[in-house]
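Sample 3 of the quickstart, ligand N-(iminomethyl)-L-glutamic acid:
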Amino acid sequence: MKKQLNVVGNLTFLYKMKLIGPFSQLITLRGMPLKGPLADDQLELLYGGGIVVDIGRIVAVGRFEDLHKQYPAAEVEEVIGQQTLLPGFVDAHTHICFAGNRAPDYALRVAGKSYLEIAEAGGGIWDSVIQTRAASQAALAQQTAARANSALRAGVTSMEVKSGYGLDVENELKMLRAIADARTLTPADLFATCLAAHIKPRDFNANDMAYLHHVLAVLLPIVRSEGLANRTDIFIEQTAFSQSEGRYYLQRAGQMGFELTVHADQFTPGGSVTAVACGAVSADHLEASTPHEIKLLAESNTVAVALPGASLGLGMDFVPARKLLDAGACLAIASDWNPGSAPMGDLLVQGSVLSAYQKLTLAETLAGLTFRAAYALRLTDRGTLENGRIADMQAYQTADYRDILYHQGTLKPIQVWKYGKPIR
Ligand code: NIG
Ligand code: FE
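Result:
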């Protein structure tokens, strides 16, 4: 079979059909429901499995020996020792485009100050805005890619990345352009979201509504015309924007064609009601959601995105993930990696710890990190191992998939593939 030069995603490389395996276990995550509780016996496990990849996509999944006979021309990429294969993780909520650090906030927080007290005293998001405004587009691109590459080595093959530390037209565009530049510096797929509505910047001399109007009238048209992001986010909270301001912003941004997502119910409930009413693809955080919000989310197609890294960073309760699933919601798990509330940035540690505290089955946790997370970004080409999906995969050195969450994130992938290409 001839080698061909192919462009796949943001990668260009020589590609030849190959058969990868044999894997002790191959967890496909295919054929599972998008919403509601999952039992571990709903997971499809293939023993002695293999996977055939061509031009970055999966063309066959099955028993390695059978595939070897069916695809005699495929080059074999042999797996050494006992390994378990999973789809790459999708991190549907991050703020990895930032400069500087908020270790001083953390020191205050562990000494007893609350997140809101620190923000009101001049720390918090605004401190990251100052540091990010001072950074160049090139430096931001480099730091974003470095974080994406470290997540990629830990099995995260796709990441959403928000702006939201620029908070004026020039600096929001700088952040979004840096995210675009970062795509040339990492094999991971990066999906940008405009979070200019993170908080009203302190140097904007008018009220919240005027700021949102400014974002809608001036910034979003440029974001759209430059193709910098097709998603937008707003932080609905007492210290950020109200529900009625959120509704105003989301309705208009939706009319402009943006996909909508909301930072909702982090400290006080209600933001998710607005998210659902406005048809947001996801409502993220939800630590403070009450039975009312849980019911509305469960009845909607808005994905409930748990951010356990923020609970760990702030020392606060976890999202009621068990209740959300039992009510019938689609639950995804994301890192929220940011310099303030969630500096750890290790999605597997966070998903494992959330599952221990919220009594999530292994299937629910793995679904929340893969195909349910892909649905939070409305991506239908990834998150499971099945024909036609892109070959984003990760293997762990174990013969039993249960070891992965059991080690609570300390067992790292031995190999990660992006569009079928090993990353190391
Ligand atoms: O998701 N809640 C608002 N935004 C971020 C925090 C950002 C920051 O503290 O810098 C979050 O937790
Ligand atoms: Fe966030």
